[in-house]
Structure formats: structure tokens, C-alpha cells
Amino acid sequence: MCPAKLNLFYFGGTGGGIWRTTDGGRSWENISDGFFGGSIGAIEVAPSDHNVLYAGGGEVTVRGNVGYGSGMWRSTDAGQVWSAAGLKNSRHIPRIRVHPEQP
After folding, report:
1. Are 61 and 90 in contact (CB under 8 A)?
2. Is 75 strand, coil or helix?
């Protein structure tokens, strides 16, 4: 959720990429296809700039058959373009914290 935009939400699927709604969940669009795919373990919107998003690949390892990811990804334009941000071999990123003032 983004406090500045009350109907904006992001969802990371296990095996399904990142999805965004701007109408409170009535409709969703995939915003990660063409950049990366697979399981998403975490998504974080920068508190100081709602256009900066981080996504961590790989679901939480709570069972034996989990999907792994391809590291950390970052977008500075609300998900229109994504770039790799490191941790390529981490496989599972279940949580992300963004500095409250420095996205």
C-alpha cells in the first residue's frame, strides 16, 4: 500500500511476478514481465518516494518445494522499468527494508 495513493497496491506472486492495482483491487496488471519473473519473496515501496520499488526474488522457504528467485530488483518509476540491484545468487529474499529518507 502507498499512503499517498490509497487505492494503489502491489502483490508478489509465488511463481507469478509482480502485480499492481490502482483501483483498490478491482483490476490488476503484471508489471514485471519482460524484466524478470518467477517467485517473489518481498516487495517494498520506499517510504520517501512511492515511485521507488524494490522486489526480492524467491519465496520464503517454509516447505520443501519453494520457487527461488533471481536476486533483488529496483524500479524508480513505479514499476515501468526494472533493473537488477544485486544479490543474484541469494535465491530467497523474504523481507526488504528501505531507508525511510533515502530510497
Report:
1. no
2. strand
pTM to 2 decimals? 0.83
Residues with Cβ < 8 Å from 64, sequence gap 6 or more? none
42: left (phi over 0), alpha (psi -120 to 50) or beta: beta
Q: What is the pLDDT of residue 75?
A: 95
Residues 38-96: tens digit of each pLDDT: 788 888 999 999 899 999 887 766 666 666 677 788 999 999 999 888 777 777 787 88
In which region does residue 68 sit, left (phi positive, over 0), alpha (psi from -120 to 50) or beta (all else)? beta
Closest CA to 59 of 25, 30, 28, 17: 17
Look at residue 53 in the predicted model and tell me its pLDDT: 93
C-alpha–C-alpha distance, residues 15 and 67, integer Å: 7
Q: Where are the domains of the chain?
A: 9-86
